[in-house]
Amino acid sequence: MIIDHDRVDVSNLHRQVLFAEADIGRPKVEAAAARLTAINGAIAVEALPERLDLDNVERLFGRADVVIDGSDNYATKYLAADAALKFGLPVVYGSATGMEAMVTVFLPGEGPCLRCLFPEAPSGWVPNCAEAGVLGPLVGMAGAVQAAEAIKLLVGTPALTSLSGRLWLVDARDMGSRQLAIGKRPDCPACSLDPAGLELAGTAPAVHEIDHAQAQALPGALWVDVREPDEYAAGHFSGAVNLPLSRLHTGEPGLPDAEHLVVYCATGMRCRAAAPLLERAGTGRVHVLRGGYRQAAVD
Ligand SMILES: [Zn+2]
């Protein structure tokens, strides 16, 4: 089963090895399933074009033996890790940003879990691959290590030792790799409790999303570009004011009054942090432009 709600973008191609230029615009799960069955026609791949969230996680994980986390945001990583713990599934965890990648395995009831490692998801805006950039091949390296760990878990031979309790790290700056021992936290907010009673948190952004046509139809809307000044200078929607998220964090935005605010960034990720801050400023109803400037530029 492959779960993802996104479509292939040209900016994915340097790191997401299952996609080609011809796939741009296709649902990622559909393109990935086609590529995987082209490699091996004997396997059954189920493509699920859904965002993993509270309302589907039990149904989807209930049919899995291993969860391989290839997601790009903390909300999904924590939901996947907590739900896997609750339902007794191992997780092959991986992440890559900038020049660094890490992989480990969380074995429920045996090894540490994600919250033993990092008890809470970082708050505020944390850049993901799409926002902060990543050295393309690193994502494939992490993915290959994750695939190896998943195969080992599924084979289940005792001679094979999983990465449970160890964090595999690689730094592409000098291609140094090392392993950190990670232990179970006695006061872990997840695995030290009864897993069955674990409360899961959703991943859906608590913002009001609208598409470009809906945004244009809003009367007297003020468009707010929360990207950095250099991104704004390289191109923006006409009439938009630039209020970088980095500035929203530190001080009063000083926005002109408007009934509606249409907030956008490159892809929509930064808006998750910017929208609540702008809502708190209370100048107008806050709407987030779905897909951000990049999507509108493609459309
Ligand atoms: Zn734990």
Secondary-structure map with pairings?
Layout: E1 2-3, H1 28-39, E2 47-48, H2 57-61, E3 67-69, H3 74-87, E4 91-97, E5 100-106, H4 114-117, H5 129-132, H6 136-155, E6 166-171, E7 176-181, E8 209-210, H7 212-216, E9 221-225, H8 229-233, E10 241-242, H9 245-248, E11 260-264, H10 269-281, E12 285-289, H11 292-298
The structure holds zinc ion.
How would you describe this structure to a colleague?
The chain is of the alpha/beta class and 299 residues long. The chain folds into two domains: 51-197, NAD(P)-binding Rossmann-like Domain (Rossmann fold, 3-Layer(aba) Sandwich), CATH 3.40.50.720; 209-298, Oxidized Rhodanese, domain 1. 31% of the residues lie in helices and 17% in strands. It has eleven helices and twelve strands. The longest helix is centred in the middle third of the chain and has 20 residues, at 136-155. The mean pLDDT is 89. The structure holds zinc ion (ZN).
